[in-house]
Amino acid sequence: MPDSLSSFHQSSPDSPPRASSPSGGDLKARSPRSQPGLQPQFKVLIALTLLTALLLLPFALSPLYLNFLRSRSVDLHFWMRGELYKQITGFSSLFFVLLELVLTARKRGRTWPMRLKVPGSIRLWRNVHIFSGVALVGLVLIHTLGSTGLNFNALFLWVFFGVTLTALMGVVAETGILESSRSYFGRWPGLSRPLTKGPLIRGLRSLWLTSHIFLVSLFMVMLVIHILLAYYYQ
C-alpha cells in the first residue's frame, strides 16, 4: 500500500477509533474509593486503653493528693466536696450513662413492648459507646476527685471499674484478632482442628460480653440506690 493511501486510511474520519487499553493510573483513578470504616482501629483502642489506665491511676494515689489539697487550699477542697460541685459532675456523669444505653436501645428497641427506633447504624452507636465510656471514666474521676469512698460507694465504684475494663479489654482483643495477619490461633483443648478467627472471637465474646452485661445490670441497680442515698438519706 502506498504511503499516501496508508496515511489517508489512518486519518480518515470514517474509520472506527481504536480501543485503547486503560493504564494503571486510569484504573486507579476510576476505581471507587473505599470508605473509611467507623470501627476504631487496634492502635486507637490501645491508645484508649492507656488513657483509661491514666484516668484510673489517681484513684490509687488519691489519699496523697487529697490530703495535700486539703492542707494547701481549704476553700477549694471544701467547694469540690460541696453540693453544687457534686450536682454538676453527677448529672454530667448521668448523661453519659444514658448515652451508653443508646446502643442497647438501638439493638433491641424494636423488640420492646414500647417499640423504640433509634436513628443511626449499630456501628456508629458502638463507637459512641466506646468513646463515651472512656469519657465517663474521666467524669467519674472529676466527680469523686479520685476518692474510692467507703462501704457502698466503694463497692459501687469497683463495679463501675469492672464494667469499663471488661468492655474495653474485650473490644481490644476482638479487634486485635480481626486485624491480625494470622489465620490460625492454636487449638482448643481436646480438638484437632486449628482455631480460626471466627470461633476464637465467638469464644472470647461469650466470656467478656456476658461478664460485661452482668456488671452493667448490677451497676444500674446500684446507680439508682446511689442516687436515692445522695438525695434522701444524706
What is the secondary structure topology, with strand pairs?
Blueprint lengths: L2 H9 L12 H7 L11 H31 L1 H7 L2 H18 L1 H7 L13 H23 L6 H29 L17 H36 L2
Helix pairs in contact: 3-4, 3-7, 3-8, 5-7, 6-7, 7-8, 8-9
What does this structure look like?
Helices cover about 70% and strands about 0% of the residues. It has about 230 residues and is mostly helical. The radius of gyration is 29 Å and the shape is globular.
Keywords:
mainly alpha; 234 residues; disordered N terminus
Mean pLDDT: 80
Globally, the shape reads globular
Number of beta strands: 0
H/E topology pattern: HHHHHHHHH
Biggest sheet features: none
- Stretches where pLDDT falls below 50 for ≥5 residues? 1-37
Strand content: under 5%
Helical content stands at over 70%
**What does the radius of gyration come to?**
29 Å
> End-to-end distance, in Å?
108 Å
Q: Could you say which structural class the secondary elements and strand pairing correspond to? A: mainly alpha
Query: Helical region count?
Result: 9
Protein name: Ferric oxidoreductase domain-containing protein
Keywords: Membrane, Transmembrane, Transmembrane helix
In brief, what are we looking at here?
This protein has 234 residues and is mainly α. It has nine helices and no strands. Residues 1-10 have a biased composition (Polar residues).
